[in-house]
Amino acid sequence: MTQRPYVVDQMISAKTIAARIEDLAREIETEFASVDKLVVVGLLRGSFVFIADLVRELNLDVEVDFLEASSYGNATESSREVRILKDLRGGIEGRDVLVVEDIVDTGHTMKHVLGLLNARKPHKLRSIALLDKPSRREADVRADWTGFEIPDEFVVGYGIDFAQHNRNLPFIGKVRFTED
Ligand code: IMP
Ligand code: MG
Question: Is 71 in the pocket of ligand 1 (CB under 6 A)?
Answer without folding.
Answer: yes
